Amino acid sequence: MAAVTSALIAIAGVVLGWIAIEIACKPCLEKGREAIDRSLDPDYDPDDDEIRVPINPPNHDLQEQLNPRPDHDSSIAAVSSATPIKAV
């Protein structure tokens, strides 16, 4: 009888643990389940989704500093071409 009681308590613990995880991680689990459902749906077309805006939009000032336009005078390019690096 003690073994049956222990087994029932263990099963109840597993069920309560599963419910706690489902409640705590509900948003993440829902997104994952939606992604799985979409990937298994043969009628799903990714081109029908609306375009999402990136969370971190690109910083155009930083990109211009790293890749200056040829007609744009850059002080970084002038300094780097004026001072050669010598090997020691």
List key phrases describing it.
88 residues, mainly alpha, Outer envelope membrane protein 7, OEP7-like
Summarize the structure.
This is Outer envelope membrane protein 7. With about 90 residues, the protein is mainly α.
Description:
The chain is mainly alpha-helical and 88 residues long. The protein has a domain at 1-42. Helices cover 60% and strands 0% of the residues. The protein contains four helices and no strands. The protein has helices at 2-24, 26-40, 60-66, 75-82. The termini are far apart. The model has no long low-confidence stretch (mean pLDDT 78). Residues 77-88 have a biased composition (Polar residues). It comes from Salix brachista.
Describe the SSE topology.
Layout: H1 2-24, H2 26-40, H3 60-66, H4 75-82
Average per-residue pLDDT, rounded, comes to 78
- What structural class do you assign from the helix and strand content? mainly alpha
Strand percentage lies at: under 5%
In whole angstroms, how far apart are the ends? 83 Å
Radius of gyration: 29 Å
- Which percent range fits the helix content? 55-70%
- How many strand elements? 0
Region (Disordered): 38-88
Biased composition (Polar residues): 77-88
Protein name: Outer envelope membrane protein 7
Organism: Salix brachista
